[in-house]
Inverse folding.
């Protein structure tokens, strides 16, 4: 008996997924637990495993397609076994096999059979038409249309919702991080690991949030919920879009642990190996674009969080101290906050504390 492979539902909010690529073709033999496809959800990418041992009898969806959760996308069974009927489309076994081999969706094929069934020749003509269309497209050199990834679409939807529903305000300040950069080198030597500017910044944010817990709260109707844990979201740019993995319970971690977790999460975010739990539960987000030379920007709040910190580039500036001209390292900071939760004075007090922590780091 043939067994179905469906688009998995990995979370309560997941409604659809995108097949990034198939790792198998029709006729391949797979074992239970073998990877058959790479799937993109609204938060990350994941490898889809087969729950059955057998032969891939049919592949019903092409790479790049967006598929509703639980929808049938492939069949696994015994060699020579007939594929169960595919919805309302009647087709001969030869036509189904060829369609699977060539990645042709049966709904796009015109049937020629006496009973309205799709025959092998129909699939061949559809495949030839697809190749001809591709050849014509190459010859005419049209504009390139690139569909958004699932992550990009969901992120765009959430960011639009944030801007339309949250009365956000952004405050900008600048911190003299000359001493911090010098301390970073000493800390790296002392701990025997590479401590980055971002590691020190994250550690300082945790201390500032402890001092100003309102920035680590969420709005619930007419009440505020002060979160018991500081769960830091770190924005990571990937080829598929922006991801925000979370360092949970950051208030309990040492600088070494924050550094290790930040590096691990960022690396696996770029590789598409994050779990849903590692993308959930954030209470405050840090978005660092300093490496791109940005001096100020307006980061968008990730609901239901109260605020997000934008970290800008470090620039050399000359400062007159007495009769001496000194070269200092200055970092830009941009704090966007929900004015329903945090007023301007409270936000200013938080960013002032953060600036002082960065300017006088504890060795």
């Amino acid at each position: 008996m043939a067994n179905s492979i469906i688009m998995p539902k990995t979370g309560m909010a997941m409604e659809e997924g995108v097949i990034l690529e198939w790792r198998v073709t029709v006729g391949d033999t797979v074992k239970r637990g073998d990877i058959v496809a790479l799937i993109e959800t609204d938060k990350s990418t994941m490898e889809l495993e087969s729950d059955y041992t057998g032969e891939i009898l049919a592949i019903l969806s092409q790479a790049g397609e967006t598929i509703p959760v639980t929808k049938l996308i492939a069949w696994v069974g015994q060699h020579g076994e007939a594929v169960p009927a595919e919805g309302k489309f009647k087709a001969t076994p030869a036509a189904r096999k060829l369609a699977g081999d060539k990645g042709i969706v049966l709904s796009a094929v015109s049937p020629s059979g006496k009973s309205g069934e799709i025959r092998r020749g129909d699939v061949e003509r559809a495949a030839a038409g697809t190749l001809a269309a591709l050849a014509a497209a190459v010859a005419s050199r049209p504009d390139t249309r690139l569909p958004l990834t699932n992550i990009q679409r969901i992120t765009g939807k959430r960011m639009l919702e944030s801007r339309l529903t949250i009365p956000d305000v952004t405050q900008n300040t600048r911190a003299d991080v000359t001493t911090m950069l010098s301390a970073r080198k000493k800390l790296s030597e002392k701990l025997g690991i590479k401590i980055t500017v971002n590691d020190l910044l994250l550690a300082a944010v945790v201390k500032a949030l402890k001092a100003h817990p309102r920035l680590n709260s969420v709005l619930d109707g007419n009440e505020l919920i002060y979160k018991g844990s500081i769960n830091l979201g770190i924005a990571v740019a990937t080829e598929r879009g922006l991801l925000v993995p979370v360092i949970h319970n950051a208030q309990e971690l040492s600088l070494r642990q924050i550094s290790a977790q930040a590096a691990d999460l960022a690396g696996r975010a770029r590789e598409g190996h994050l779990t849903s739990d590692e993308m959930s539960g954030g209470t405050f987000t840090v978005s660092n674009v300093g490496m791109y030379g940005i001096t100020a920007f307006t980061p968008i709040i990730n609901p239901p969080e109260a605020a997000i910190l934008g970290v800008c580039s470090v620039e050399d500036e000359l400062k007159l101290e007495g009769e001496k001209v000194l070269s200092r390292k200055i970092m830009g900071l941009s704090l966007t906050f929900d004015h329903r939760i945090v007023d301007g004075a409270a936000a200013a007090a938080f960013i002032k504390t953060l600036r002082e922590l960065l300017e006088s780091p504890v060795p």
Notes: The mean pLDDT is 88. The CA atoms of residues 252 and 291 lie 28 Å apart.
